[in-house]
Amino acid sequence: MNIDRIKLVEDALNKCETLRRDNPSGPFEYVAAQLRYVLALLKGEDPDRSRLKDINIGLIALREFDTRFPEFSDCLMAVEKIVDDMRFRR
User: Fold this and answer.
1) What is the pLDDT, as a whole number, of residue 26?
2) What is the pTM of this model?
């Protein structure tokens, strides 16, 4: 259901913004931009699905956040699953 997906992406974005304030270095802004795009797609605010292929939140989660921020990494991996579903229209 889209409402659950929207909530999950909003939670990930909120966590990203909090972490970015507390840890100014790192790819937080890049991740936030991707999360905002996914959220806009889910809400129907952006019809352009062409950039879905460029989303790499899962890879960033594993490389950058898995050991330092495991809860955030798990959250991003859940968003990656949503992105995969959107890519393949599931």
Assistant:
1) 81
2) 0.93
